[in-house]
Design a protein that fits this description.
The chain has about 180 residues and is an all-alpha fold. Helix content is about 75%, strand content about 0%. It has helices at about 5-30, 35-55, 60-85, 100-115, 115-130, 135-140, 145-170, 175-180. The radius of gyration is 24 Å and the shape is elongated.
Length: about 180
Amino acid sequence: MSGSTDQRRALLDLYDSALPEVYGYLAARCGSAAIAEDLTSETFLAAVDAVRRGAVPELTVAWLIGVARHKLVDHWRRREREERQAEPATDGADAVDDWDVRLDQMEAHATLARLGGHHRSALTLRYLDGLPVREVAACLGRTEGATEVLLVRAKAAFARTSRASVAVTVRPSRSATSGTDRPSR
């Protein structure tokens, strides 16, 4: 077992004072006492695991709140995934050729990959994970106002990057601009 005995003891000592703060942080953001309790348990289990592995930089309430934030984001993503899977599937008669949709998704993912990490995180949480701005702000550790500004800038960067990609992709070939492909008369 890794992890110092001092850190294990420190986690036990910190538990009583940190428990209400971690629970309060989660309860205020998830809207359900039962879910907040589950996420609080997951947070402390993850903390115990991190202490055992010796992966705790500094054992503080702030660090535990950071672990709780990650558990909350995991919960939101899991819930969104489950909701998407629970949506009724359309039968073959109602199905539309989704080739254009797939191409748009591939282009969007490629464009996201070219963005900076802060823009990519904000856009992913807001539009792919479907989180409201308030929850995106909580995940990113920002105020709602700062998150709204970040999202505006991220969307502008996405549009610029996407247009630049399309301009390179759609540029005509030499033969098309030189007129060599014209039919003879």
